[in-house]
Specification:
- This protein is mainly alpha-helical.
- It has 3 helices and no strands.
- It is 77% helix and 0% strand.
Length: 78
């Protein structure tokens, strides 16, 4: 049993890493697609697509910070 527990310790952060990566990629792709659809709807090219990519990256960072970056501080958030 001890060998199995030691093996789990080596890979314990892998799930967190993949969750952060997929959140970032998902935010960029989702809002990028939304920007692309707005470009198509309004008949313009390459205006809302890069805006969607930038906002998607920012939203991904914010969601990752909310989920993993707050830390274990006091209840006041400082």
């Amino acid at each position: 049993m001890a060998a199995h527990e030691q093996q789990d310790d080596k890979w314990s952060g892998m799930g967190t890493g993949w969750a952060i990566t997929s959140t970032m990629i998902g935010g960029i792709v989702t809002l990028g697609l939304f920007g692309y659809l707005l470009d198509r709807l309004f008949g313009i090219e390459h205006v809302f697509l890069p805006i969607g990519f930038i906002l998607g990256g920012a939203a991904g960072v914010y969601i990752v910070w909310l989920r993993y970056g707050r830390g274990e501080g006091d209840e006041t958030g400082t």
